[in-house]
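Recall from the previous lesson that a structure prediction takes nothing but the amino acid sequence as input. Here we apply that procedure to PPM-type phosphatase domain-containing protein from Kitasatospora phosalacinea. The sequence below is the only information supplied.
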Amino acid sequence: MRRCRLLASVLAMVITSKRDTSDSYAHGTQADTMSLPSEMLRAFLPPRTVCTDRAISTAVLEPAYRLGGDAFDHALADGVLHAAVLDAMGHDLASGLTASLALGACRNARRNGADLPDLVDTIDRALHDWFPDRFATGVFLRLDIATGTLHWANCGHPHPLLIRSGEVVAGALDGPGELPLGLSHYTGAPRTVRTFSLKPGDRLLIYTDGVVDAKGANHEFFGLARFTDFVIRAAGAGETAPETLRRLMHAILEHQDEGLTDDATIMMIEWQPLSPPLLDDTRPHLPRW
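The prediction returns the following C-alpha cells.
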C-alpha cells in the first residue's frame, strides 16, 4: 500500500507539471468547448488544494463553458491561510475580465502586505476605476493556522457556512448585507471585517449561487439542504476534503444533466490541528525496490 501511494503521488506530480504546458491535459479535463471568458479565468486560477498539517483549503470550479464570472484564490504565508471566492456580474466577456481584475487586485494587495480592509478596498477601487459599470460579489478570509482565529469580509456574496460536529451551525458566519465590490463608493462606508474562532474539525463552505441554483429535469433546485447534507455525510465517512468536493461537483452535474447555466464554485476550508494529517501521507521513507 505504501508503494502504491508513493507511485500515485509521483504520477500526480507528473500530471500537475504538464498542466500548464500541455493542451492534451486541457482537452481531457473539459466536457465541452470553453468560452473565451472561461478560458481567461481558468488560466489565472491557483492549484485546487493548498494545505499544511493543520489546515487545508480545497476548491472546485465547474464552468458553464459559455460563461465565465466565477473565480477563487488561496495561498499560505507566515502561518496564515488566505482565501477568496468571487462571482462577477453578467454572462459575457466583461464578466470574465471583471473577475480576472478582481483576482489580480486581490493577489497584488495581499502580496504587498495589505490587511483585509485594505485588500477589499483595493479591489473596490480597481473595479470602480476600470469597469465602473460592473461589480462582483466576494468573500475574503484569513485563517490563523495556529489558533484557528478566522477573519472574513463578505461583499454581497452568499454567507459562508460552518459545519461543526456533523451539522450546520445556523447563522455562525452571517452578518448584515454589504454592497458588492465596485459599488462601495456610493455609500463611502468602510467594509466590515468579522472575527470567529474555529474549533478543531470545523469545515467552512464558501460557494457561488450556481451551486445551489443548479436545476434538475423536474425543475428542482439542487438546493442548500442537499448541498450541506452531502458534505456532512462525507465528513462522517472520513472522506478528505478534496475528494468530497470532487464527488459533490459530480453530483451537481448529474442533477443538472443538461449542463450548468451558471458557473459553480465551491471552496472548503478545514482546520484540524489535533489530528493526523488532513491528506494521506504520501511521503513515507522511500522503499527499497
